[in-house]
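agent: user wants the structure for Efflux RND transporter periplasmic adaptor subunit from Sphingomonas immobilis. delegating to structure tool.
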Amino acid sequence: MTRLWIAAPMLLLAACSRGGEDKPADPVALVKLAPAMQGEAAQDIALYGAAEAGPAAKMSLVAPAEAKVAAIDAPAGTTVRQGQIVVRLAPSPTTRSDAAKAASDATVADKALARAIRMRGDGLMSDAEVEMARAAAVAANALRASFADRVGGLALRAPAAGIVDTVSVAVGDLLQPAAAVATVTRSGDVRVRFGVDPDTAQTLRPGMTIRIAGNVARAPVSVAIQSVNANVDTQTKLASIYANVPAGSGLRAGEVVSGSVAVMQTGSALTIPYAALLDDAGQPYVYAVSAGVAHRRDVQTDPATGDRVTIRKGLKPGEQVVVEGGTAVEDGMKVRTR
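agent: tool returned. relaying tokens verbatim.
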């Protein structure tokens, strides 16, 4: 009986001891907060496109008369200096015959004019007849000179320094007058063309600055928008932005380029510091804090310049978001500020 009286208080003491154990404290994260702010923001619009020859950069070489291709001195891709021969042509039999006839006709016309002048001096021909003979001689000599120039111009030369872009003939080809032979792209005359969403194109204006990204071969370069073509390309479904590139930029026709242009958003832009933005498998989110508790908010964003990002959906002006310590926070966790 004595044992029972001794054991009972001990059991009671043990029970009281277990009931008084402390519960684990809820985790509390140490964070820094910043407000979502309404106002003006500069949005960076990404652009993708390619460098191409400027409108005046493409120079065409054509056959001045019917001729055969004798030699191709500068194939496509060759860098040429001004005046360098690109393609050599040889006059065809028809061109030789026509040139010879033109020369003969000019000689006959000159003799006829001289005879008419003598006969007018003898009173055997009127002034009007002499003028007719003079006009015929002028026309015949012009035709002879034209053939001489065409035959003498059968060595087709680069009009300016550049790169032979295309050669559309082969040795031995018989070419008709004005037939395309080759094209040369003038060095230093390059522009960039970017494809953009048609709605985005409405926000861009000539004179805005595009920052073209650099690469291992050249430095970044800034250029001004020259023109905006809002017409939608039937294949790409994009509008076009054009900008001229300064000489010496290192950009060459055909090079794929990327860039960006800053567009100011006014009035309704809601921004937060970049540091507040987190990512969950491509879904951007932030932790908004209310009454000391952090709540996850999925947001929709627009890119922005500087150190702030524009929020299109998911937050309200004035809400406090976690900008430091967010990686240690979970949805519904209590937080305290630094």
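agent: one observation worth passing along. The chain has three domains: 28-45+266-337, 46-55+188-259, 58-186.
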